[in-house]
User: Fold this.
Amino acid sequence: MSMLSRRTSPLWLAALVHRLSGLALAAFLPFHFLALGLAISGEARLEGFLRWADQPLVKLSEGLLVGLLAVHMLGGLRLLALENLAWREGQTRFALLAVAAAMVVVFVFLASVF
Ligand code: HEM
Assistant:
């Protein structure tokens, strides 16, 4: 298999999405702890943050984050099953299913916050 065809294979893309989503979630974590810290550092500061977080663009970014978490979790469960259950068939279909399910999660999330 040539380098190019490997890079366009859905499972190569699934590995890329898994790595990028894992890194993005890890980058988000310090900001998440910062926001949690505001909750114990005073009501007014938390209130200010919550007001800021109520903007449409922030909610959309949260939707993206929820999608990253969903696709990383579902893709991670696929990988764990693949690695531990000696089960190799239909992986492209399961990777696509993970993406589709993550999209449904994003739509449900966005529908509930807007
Ligand atoms: C929600 C449940 C989660 C599951 C089931 C899960 C599963 C996995 C698995 C199985 C791997 C290894 C992938 C491989 O074998 O190549 C992995 C990698 C990784 N995960 Fe998660 N994970 C979860 C949540 C998270 C969260 C919340 C973060 C970040 C805060 C995160 C960050 C990462 C990173 C940075 C990697 C390394 C990616 C790479 O080197 O390609 N994961 N995850």
